[in-house]
Design brief:
By secondary structure, this protein is α+β, with helices and mostly antiparallel strands. The chain is about 25% helix and about 35% strand.
């Protein structure tokens, strides 16, 4: 597993290679400033495709690649 490794046209969030299974996983994480988590996930997936983050996995012979876009939003309104 690696994080922020140069791949394709930029730096992906997280790359995981499961060697025995020939499976790779690309995870891009975005902070949704406006709280729109769905839009943040779509932007993360768009970036994975646009920047071709899966290229490094394909070069190592990975046959199946799973791509995940994850968004989060932090609210600082704790009461208690």
């Amino acid at each position: 597993m690696s994080s922020n490794q140069e791949s394709g046209d930029g730096y992906s969030g997280i790359l995981i290679e499961i060697e025995d299974a020939g499976i790779g996983i690309v995870i891009e994480v975005k902070y949704a400033r406006d709280g729109n988590l769905e839009a943040g996930c779509k932007e993360a997936l768009r970036q994975i495709g646009q920047k071709q983050y899966e290229e490094i996995l394909l070069e190592t012979g990975v046959e199946k690649i799973l791509k995940y876009g994850i968004a989060f939003h932090f609210r600082n309104d704790f009461s208690g």
